[in-house]
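User: Structure please.
Assistant: Input sequence and predicted structure:
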Amino acid sequence: MPRNVYGPDHEAFRASVREFVERSLKPRAEDFIAAKSIDRAVWLEAGKQGLLGLDIPEEYGGAGADDFLFNAVAAEEFSKFNAAVSSCFGIHADVCPPYIVDLGTEEQKQRWLPRMAAGELICGIAMTEPSGGSDLAALKTTAVRDGDDWVVNGSKTFITNGYQGDLIIVAARTDPSKGAKGITLFMLETGMEGFTRGRKLDKVGQEESDTAELFFDNVRVPDANRIGEEGRGFIAMMERLPQERVGAAVSNTAHAFQILAETIEYVKERKAFGQPVGTFQHNKFKIAEMQTKLEVTQAYVDDCVAAHAKGELTAVDAAKAKWWSAQVQNDVLDECVQLYGGYGFMNEYRVARAWRDARVTKIWAGSNEIMKELIGRDLGL
């Protein structure tokens, strides 16, 4: 079925993203894995190509696209390369900028946004804590007012871009008596005394992503680094999570489509019992099921992307797109590994790495179980 969500300008942008992937990402793929991060030179190249400032207005050095469809195109093309790079770029360029653009002061926008768009400041967002998981309202990191500063104590974990990030949006509890209404957001910067990082976490997949623990030991953060109003941090996160979740759905679907396409080419060539393994009826039916399931998923995700571009996507519909696409992706890639046989279990084969990379998508950006809880509540259950 033809996709109707994108126009000529989006497709022209897609071509430029693909060129960047071919020129700047693919030749360095193994280097990213070895370093467990994307090197700084690549971030700067992405910034020069205008790929990191789509959500940033032109007056602050960004593209000023003001159209989520461009974000979705970038996410699709990065995900076809691999899930980890899409995640790192997505957090920096898709998830973090709206906090500063929507909630920041003029001084904050001038201070941070141009360098984020240029790839000079790598940004991350620190919500998750070791004891909290998806329960953001129960976070334990604290920020206590001291004159014109806040003193931050606590820790965060599983933070994408956490190891080499220069600027981290940190959710902290500023009023323990108010529950979710006592949470405030702060921008912590590299070099602040008491702000340290643990090692790059050794993950099952997505080695290219520099994921780390963050530690705050009496970090003095000026009030000028507070983002938004005091006590409205939880609301700010809830308002912006739909963009993160629909972005995850876009990435999930594109990643699965790419690996399925490669698998189809493989089973056309790989022979067993004197014929291509793709011609066996069982395998043919499996591939037909996967292709159909992904196309149906794509149709719903495209509708969500179009709705979000108009400002009409609900948190519940974003939750549906997130959990469903994550589940479908994992189901499809598991079948792709099976179709490769023993080779599908070898790390040198892309399908094996993609299979491992995909597993976390059922956990992050709110676990699939949390997504179903949101949907169930909306149904009055």
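The chain has twelve helices and ten strands.
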